[in-house]
Amino acid sequence: MPTIRIPTPLRPYAAGKTEVAVAGDTVGAALSDLTVRHPDLRKHLYADTGELRAFVNVFLGQEDVRHLQGVKTALKDNDQLRIVPSVAGGLMDCHSERRSREESQAKPRDASTLRASA
Amino acid sequence: MTLLIPSNLYSQISNHLQAAYPNEGAGILLGAANGDGKTVKAIKPFVNKFETGEQYHRYFIAAQDMLDGETEAERLGLDVVGVFHSHPDHPAQASEYDREYALPWYSYLIISVQEGRAADAQSWVLSDDRTKFNEERIETAN
Q: Tens digit of pLDDT for each residue in B84-108?
């Protein structure tokens, strides 16, 4: 079976496991099986829309599956997936004086805001 | 919950965030969980990867950087225990934007950088239901 490595902050929602063996022949099926086995993971991996949260990245080996076929990426029996969070944040609502300027300049708060400059 | 940071590492964090001013700086905290808290044992500063014109109020640590950080933590027998970033000329209060992109358990250390100098600091931990940040006590030690 393929395995999924769980990042430290999410292990409490996966019975403390570092790695979980899952069924599925695609990345999407494997993730789905993971949340069936450990339902408490769902709210941290998926937004209310059912999409993977913007900061949730899945690597197959050293490759981000977004650079492969995304959730449709095919898996073999011994493949090792890894959930890797990306991290974003910053000012928005913690200082009222600049709030209006920030809001007028800020892009929509979804994955499209996370464009790398490098 | 307590976040214990050796003073030499706290200085390194402050220096990185001051160097990033007037933009936000960021990096990750490597360490170990110990009962009711975490001890930071190394840091890994990163270049802010958010688009250039928005870095004065945004930071982004890319997945590849996090993967490198996790790999280094594993090599050292540590975990990634949190993230640090600056709020230039703003208080060290976690924002709604911080919460939206946060994971539970991680410590989110925010340092206010006022006119280029590191000032107040506060650490935050996301609640299990993702609805709020809880304050976490910071201790520095030699």
A: 999 999 999 998 888 888 899 999 9
pTM for the full predicted model: 0.85
User: Hey, how many other C-beta atoms are within 10 angstroms of the C-beta on B93?
Assistant: 18
Minimal C-alpha gap between A24 and chain B (Å): 24
pLDDT in tens, A37-76: 999 999 999 988 988 888 899 999 989 999 999 999 999 9
* Closest chain A residue by Cα to residue B94: A94
- Count of Cβ atoms closer than 10 Å to residue A21 Cβ: 13
Q: What is the pLDDT of residue A65?
A: 94
Instruction: Sketch out chain B's domains with CATH numbers.
Output: 2-141 (3.40.140.10)
Q: Which of B95, B86, B70, B82 is nearest to B119 (CA)?
A: B86
**A71 compared with A93, residue with greater pLDDT:** A71
Which of B86, B80, B88 is CA-nearest to residue B30? Answer: B80
Contacts of A108 in chain B (CB under 8 A): none
Where does A3-89 sit in CATH, by number? Answer: 3.10.20.30
| Closest of B97, A18, B118 to residue B108, by C-alpha | B97
Task: Report the C-alpha gap between A117 and A77 in whole angstroms.
Answer: 37
What are the tokens at B25?
């700086």
Question: Encoding tokens for residue A91?
Answer: 């000012």
The residues with which A46 forms a beta bridge, in sequence order, are: A52
- Inter-chain touch B26–A85, beta carbons under 8 Å: no
Q: How far apart are CA B81 and CA B70, in angstroms?
A: 10
Q: Give the Å distances, CA to CA, from A90 to A112, B47, B133, B140.
A: 16, 15, 14, 24
Q: Which residue of B has its CA nearest to A61?
A: B67
